[in-house]
Amino acid sequence: MRAxxxxxxxxxxxAAVASLGAGLLAGCADDGGSDGSSGGSGGDSGGKxxxxxxxxxxxxxxxxxxxxxxxKLHPDIDxxxxxxxxxxxxxxxxxxxxxxxxxxxxxxxxxxxxxxEIVKTQSAKLLDLSKYGKKSDYLEWxxxxxxxxxxxxxxxxxxxxxxxxxxxxxxxEKAGLPTDREEVAKLWAGDWKKLVQVGEDYKKKxxxxxxxxxxxxxxxxxxxxxxxxxxxxxxxKVIYKSNPAVKDAFELTAxxxxxxxIGNQTQFQPAWDTTxxxxxxxxxxxxxxxxxxxxxxxxxxxxxxxxxxxxxxxGNWGGSFLAVPKSGKNAEKAAKLAAWLTAPEQQAKLFAVxxxxxxxxxxxxxxxVKSAKNEMTGDAPIGxxxxxxxxSSPVQTIGPKDQIIQQGLTDNGVILVTQGKxxxxxxxxxxxxxxxxxxx
Amino acid sequence: xATRHDTAAPPVKEGGAAPGRPPAxxxxxxxxxxxxxxxxxxxxDMRWSPYAFVSPxxxxxxxxxxxxxxxxxxxxLHQVELTAPTDMxxxxxxxxxxxxxxxxxxxxxxxxxxxxxxxxxxxxxxAMGLAHILNYKLxxxxxxxxxxxxxxxxSIAAASLVFVLLFGRDYGMINxxxxxxxxDHVDWQxxxxxxxxAVSSIIVWRWTGYNALIYLAAMQAIPQxxxxxxxxxxxxxxxxxxxxxxPSLRPTILFTVVVSTIGASQVFGEPLLFDANKGASxxxxxxxxxxxxxxxxxxxxxxxxxxxxxxxxTMFLILIVIGVVNYVISxxxxxxx
Lengths: 440, 337
Description:
Chain B: It is found in: Cell membrane. Chain B: The chain crosses the membrane at residues 48-71, 113-134, 146-168, 310-329. The complex is a heterodimer of chains A (440) and B (337). With 440 residues, chain A is an alpha/beta fold. Chain A has two domains: 49-160 and 319-371, Periplasmic binding protein-like II (D-Maltodextrin-Binding Protein, domain 2, 3-Layer(aba) Sandwich); 162-317 and 378-439, D-Maltodextrin-Binding Protein, domain 2 (3-Layer(aba) Sandwich), CATH 3.40.190.10. In chain A, 48% of the residues lie in helices and 14% in strands. Chain A has helices at 2-28, 66-73, 87-100, 112-122, 140-145, 169-174, 181-188, 192-204, 216-225, 244-258, 270-277, 288-297, 331-341, 344-354, 361-364, 367-370, 382-392, 402-417, 423-438, and strands at residues 44-45, 48-56, 77-84, 107-111, 156-162, 164-168, 211-213, 281-286, 306-310, 316-323, 357-358. In chain A, strands 1, 2, 3, 4, 5, 10 and 11 form a seven-stranded mixed sheet that branches. Chain A has a four-stranded mixed sheet with strand order 7-8-6-9. In chain A, helix 2 links the parallel strand 2 and strand 3 (77-84). In chain A, helix 9 (216-225) runs antiparallel to helix 10 (244-258) and helix 18 runs antiparallel to helix 19. Chain A is globular. Chain A starts with a helix and ends with a helix. Chain B has a single domain (101-336), classed as MetI-like fold (Orthogonal Bundle). In chain B, 70% of the residues lie in helices and 3% in strands. Chain B is built from twelve helices and two strands. The longest helix of chain B is centred in the N-terminal third of the chain and has 47 residues, at 29-75. Chain B is mainly alpha-helical and 337 residues long. A two-stranded antiparallel ribbon of chain B has the order 1-2. In chain B, a hairpin with a 2-residue loop joins strand 1 and strand 2 (84-90). Chains A and B meet through helix 1, helix 3, helix 4, helix 11 and helix 18 of A and strand 2, helix 4, helix 5 and helix 11 of B.
C-alpha cells in the first residue's frame, strides 16, 4: 500500500517535471524563422542541386504546386523554402544577412516597401537578373522599381496589388445603397472624398454596430497608393511633411474617423480579423490578395455576399520581388528558377490558386485571369476589374524608408483619431515619430 | 575536556622512530633529474591547469560578452546604419548628447521605471505570501511547487500572445468579465496606465512562482525551533511571520529585489508582443515602450546601429548605478543587523 502511494507520487512528480521540460523546449523552439535551415546555398542532396528560397507571408508557390512542376521539368533540382510569417520580422534579418553575406538563401523575397532600399544599398550583393527575366513581360513600373540607376535589375516582380473596393452587398442594401458593382463604382468614381461621402450616406441608415470602412490605416493606405508622389520626390528627398497629397490624405482619413465612418482597428491584428468574421464593416479597400485574406477570416455564411467595385482612383498596394544573392553556390540555377517562377504562365497559375495578381500584362490575357472567380465575391469578374486597375495605376516614386513613414502615419497617426485625439495632435505625433525614426 | 597543545606530544621529527627517507646520496643523478623534471611539470600543472579549466568560460565571455560590449561602445561613437555596418563615420559623443533631448528615450525610461514598479512590487509581495503558505505542511506540496514554476517555464511569446487576447478591447475576456460586473470596458492597449498594468500582469504572472520558490527555499532553512519557541511564547502565526521569518529572509529578499530590478530594467518581450502595431513602438503613443524596446526599434527597425549602441551603453550605465545603489543599501542593512 505504502509503496504504491510512493510510486504514484513519484509518477506525478515525473509527469510534472516532464511537462515543465516540454514547456521549456517549446519556449526554445519559438523562434525558428529564417535562420532555421541557414547555411543558405546548401550543396547537393542525393545528386540533386538544392535550391532554397527565403520568403515571408504567403507567396503561394508551394500551394500552387509550382515547385513540384519545376522539379518535374528539371529532375536535378530540389527546391526548399523557409517562410517567415511577417515581413516586419523577415526584412531586418534579410538586411543583416546581406550585409554580412551569410545565412542567405539562394532566392530571397523582397517586399515592395523595401525594394527601394535594397536597390539603393544592397545591389552589389545581388545578381543582375535582367539576363534571366524578360523585361517586356512585366509592367514597366514594376520592372523599374527593382532596377538600379546603372541599369541592373536585382529583383523580378512576382505580384502586384491593384486596388479595388470590396463591399458587402447585404449591408449596402440594408443601408439603402445600390448594390450593383457598376452603380456602386459610379458613386465614388474619381475622388476619394466621394467615397467618404458615401460613408456619410451609409451611416444614416447603417445596420446597428457596423461602420462603413474597416480601419483608418486601410483608407490612408488606399488614398496614398493612388498618388504618384508620396513620401519622396524623384531626387530622393523626403517630402512627406510638405507634400499636400499626404496631408490631404491624412486629413480626409482623420475626418472620416472623427465622423465615425471607420472602425477603430489596426489592420491584420486579431481584433481586426474578428471584425471581418462578425461583419462589422461594409467596405474596404482591397487588392486581390485581400480576397484570400477575407476568405480566411470569414464565417461560412459570408460566402458570395461580397462584391468588388472599381476604386475611386487606381492604386497599387503590395507586391513583391524575388532577388538572388551573388554569394549563393547555385546562383545561376537559382536565377533561372526565379525567372521561371515569375514568368507570365506561372503568375497566371498563382492568381488562379492564390489570388496574387500578376505583374506581367501578358498574363492578363490568359484564361486563368479573364475567367477568374472568387468564392467570396460570387460571379464578379475580378480578373478584369483588377487588370484595369493595374494598367491605370500611377508609376509611383518609391523611397528607401517608405515603410517606416507609412507605418508612422498609420500606427502613430490616424489611429489616434479613433481614440479621441484631434487630427492635429495625431499628425504631430506621427511626424515626431517618423522624424525620430528617420533620424532627421 | 579540552587538550592543551603545549602538553601534547611534539610532532615526530625525521630520523625518529618512524622509518625515514632513504638518504639523498643513494639516488643516481638521472633519477634526481627525472624527479626534478616531474616535479617541475607537476608544479607547472598545478599552477596553470586551473586556468586552462576555467578558460572556456573566459574565451566565450571574450567572444560573446566583452568584445560585443566594447564594439558597441565603439559603434556608439559613430553614425552607422544596418544596411552598411562597416561604413562608419565618426560623430564623437553626438549619439549620447542627443539622448538628453530625445523625448522618446525619456518616455521609454519613465515607462521602464513605472512598469518595473507595478510589476516588481506586487510580484515580490505575492511571492512572499505564496511561499509562506507553501511552507506549512500540505498534502501534495511538491505538486504545488512544480505548478508554481510552470509559468516561468512557459515561453514569453506564448504567454504574451494569450494575454493579448485576454486583454483585447472589443472581444477580450477581461473586458467581458468587467462588463459582467457592470464596469465599463477598458481599452487595455491604448490607455497609458491600462496598457502598463496589462504588460506588468504578464511579468507578474511569469515570475511570481519563481520568486516564491526562492523564498520557500530560504524559509525552509530557518530552524524549526525558532518557531517552536515563538509558539511557546504565545506568538500567533502572523507574529511568527513578522518576527521570525522576515528577519531571517532579509538577504534573500535583497537578492530577489536586485534580480527583479535588473530584470525590470530589461523588460522587452512582453511589451513587444503586446504591441498592437506589430512594430516596437510600444503602442501608438509609445505608452508602453520600454528602454529595451526603444533600443530594438532604433537598431533593428530603423536601422540606426550607432544610436542603438549609444542607448545600449546608457542603459548599461544606468544598470551600474542601480547596482551600486543596491550594494550600498545591502551594506547598510548588513551593518544594522
